[in-house]
Known about the structure:
By secondary structure, the chain is of the alpha+beta class. The chain has two domains: about 1-95, no CATH class; about 115-370, Immunoglobulin-like (Sandwich), CATH 2.60.40. The protein contains nine helices and 13 strands. A seven-stranded mixed sheet has the order 4-7-2-1-9-12-11, with helices on one face. Strand 1 (about 125-140) and strand 2 (about 145-155) form a beta hairpin. It is elongated. The termini are far apart. About 30% of the residues are buried.
Amino acid sequence: MYSAVGANPEKPQEVARKYGLNRNLTWKLSRVMTAQDPFSALNHLPGQQGMDLAVAAFEKAGAPTDLLDQVRDSMKRFIEVVDQHAGDRDQLELTLESMGLFEREYRIETGRELAYRGNCMIWGVQARVRMALALVGPQGPDTMSFVSLGGLIGFRRLRPNVRWRLMRMQIHSDLGNEPTDIGVGPIFPTPPGDPPFVIREFCSDNVPALEQVISPEGREIMLPGGPVGSQGACDCVFGYAAKGLSRYRNEEDRFASVAASILLPTEVLICDLLLHNSVELEGKPELLIYGFPHGGIDSPAAQSVQNQLPHNFDVTELVGSPPAVGTAHIPRYSRIVNRVYEHMGWKPDEFRGYRVQIPYPVMSSKVVLRWPLPVRPV
């Protein structure tokens, strides 16, 4: 229709002036025609009244009737599809958002942010950043060492009596079994009075005494109730080291993986994986997100295809050697990573890194980075 009258979709203001149309309408039409895919075009598709005004203007300018009829028929079919399958445009967009195919551009808040705000109100806690860091390095010819650090940066309570789980330590095979031949312990010595795995060096000074609970689901570190809001906000970092992990594929494990559980409303997840150059990997790790809407133990055995959440997030490779991990989201982050390198006796420039950054990650989900283990050489 545009081509028939010589209108340039990349110059919406000129089109508005020449054909007597509203500039906002021609801007929307321009975005529809130059969109990379149909789903992003949906953000800007005008309603029926706007399309009628545009078609009438191009009809007056001399566009052929058959082209105008094609536009009218296409809009009619689109409205019929919306009515039949969704009921209205808003419900259609919500459905596509749920499938990971669409993200609304014209709203200040995304569906994930609205869920975050709702969960903050319901559960009475929130965190600015969920930090997840894993390093995998050599231990022997057949085994690897694994270091996992987690953290909540800017954790705050919205109700004073909220007691919250900060960490659950679990190590499982692909089948969900807990290995018996792996040594697990704190990365650094634990200060007196603290439960194991809390790294006070990188916690804020106002973190209260923490509680340890050992249950069938693993070892848990709990934060007691306390001050509400900014006065009680704190940063807490925890972690552990595991030795004796197989470097090669076996009956229990076809993949190596690291995971970050999202246990509370969080503004952003930073999940980093640092691999020693001796760890075999073709391409980048695979990103999977599992939801647990029915509760229960979040072991790999419960991570089924049916529980996967669709997403459009990418795994990015960190630049530099050693990998540049610094981020404004996490204070002293580079220092934390360097302390682990030093403690484990690893050379930083022998590692490569990968990052996943997710805004408003879904509560009650687990973000997994995994890669296939190589076959043991003959």
